[in-house]
Design brief:
The chain is an alpha+beta fold. The chain is 43% helix and 8% strand. The protein has 9 helices and 5 strands; from the N terminus they run ααααααβββααββα. It has a 5-stranded antiparallel sheet. Strand 4 and strand 5 form a beta hairpin. Helix 3 crosses helix 4 and helix 5 crosses helix 6. The two termini are 30 Å apart.
Length: 196
């Protein structure tokens, strides 16, 4: 399995992302001066695509497949693309407050800590549907690691398309909308890049 091993702070600086978006609470103090080089239109489009790929932890081949699916769906292609990325199980686990970062959520899903509709799923790219119920396995829920994570993420706001009950059970009520995205992204640049 391929995985992105780039240093998070360095990549955040290159892409213009706040490190807090990636779950890192510190800033790099090296080379704070902004770049004076003017970016081309292609450069801006590529930068936007790389930023979204990095935030969601998706590599190029998989991202291109999500774009193809989004392009075939009815509606605005850019919003469909973001909706597919939001529906990934690792992202839903992160959004539900079961992990501190998307990277941690991906690892927890890989280690089979979650059930979707009562069945064990260990594929981070699994796309959840409306009505799906995501729960933490009983054995995992009683572990000290999960208790610590749930304590740290307790105050995190839950997006309106998810519903969480007192038993740490999350239901997908609806699909995410454009205004549910919690970081700055211009998806039209990504669509322009792929439509060339």
């Amino acid at each position: 399995m391929a995985k992105n091993m780039q240093p998070v702070l360095k990549r955040c600086k290159t892409l213009g992302i706040e490190p807090i978006t990636m779950g890192v609470a510190k800033k790099s103090i090296r080379n704070q001066a902004p770049s004076r080089k003017k970016q081309s239109e292609y450069g801006m489009q590529l930068n936007e695509k790389q930023k979204v790929k990095f935030i969601y932890g998706v590599l190029e081949k998989q991202f291109a497949k999500y774009y193809e699916k989004a392009n075939k769906e009815e509606g605005i292609t850019g919003e469909n693309l973001l909706r597919f990325l939001e529906r990934r199980l690792d992202n839903v686990v992160y959004r539900a407050g079961f992990a501190n970062t998307r990277r941690q959520a991906r690892q927890l899903v890989n280690h089979s800590h979650f059930l979707v509709n009562g069945k064990k799923v260990n594929i981070p790219s699994y796309l959840v549907n409306k009505g799906d119920v995501i729960t933490i396995r009983e054995k995992s829920l009683s572990s000290e690691g999960f208790k610590k994570i749930l304590g740290e993420t307790e105050g995190r706001a839950l997006p309106k398309w998810l519903d969480k009950d007192a038993n740490q059970q999350v239901t997908v009520v609806n699909f995410s909308e454009r205004d549910d995205i919690d970081f700055e992204v211009n998806e039209t640049l990504i669509v322009e890049l792929y439509s060339k």
